[in-house]
Design a protein that fits this description.
With 66 residues, the chain is α+β, with helices and mostly antiparallel strands. Helices cover 21% and strands 17% of the residues. It is built from 2 helices and 2 strands.
Length: 66
């Protein structure tokens, strides 16, 4: 079953590219998010927004505690 969901971004900017391979292999988002499972490429409007993001290890700890 194909569904459409909104994507909320923690940064502002212009979407430059979308990963069209996810249309046929959406599971890559969960299995390989840092390689083949990327969703979009963004040109940032404000580089300073990156300072508010969690590092991957901090995010893993956050979801383990949830």
């Amino acid at each position: 079953v194909k569904t459409v969901e909104e994507l909320y971004s923690p940064v502002s900017g212009e979407v430059l590219e979308a990963n069209e391979t996810l249309e046929d292999s959406a599971e890559q988002v969960n299995s390989d998010p840092y390689a083949d499972g990327w969703m979009i490429k963004v040109r940032l409007d404000n580089q300073e927004e990156l300072a508010d993001l969690l590092a991957p290890s901090d995010y893993a700890e956050f979801i383990d505690d949830a």
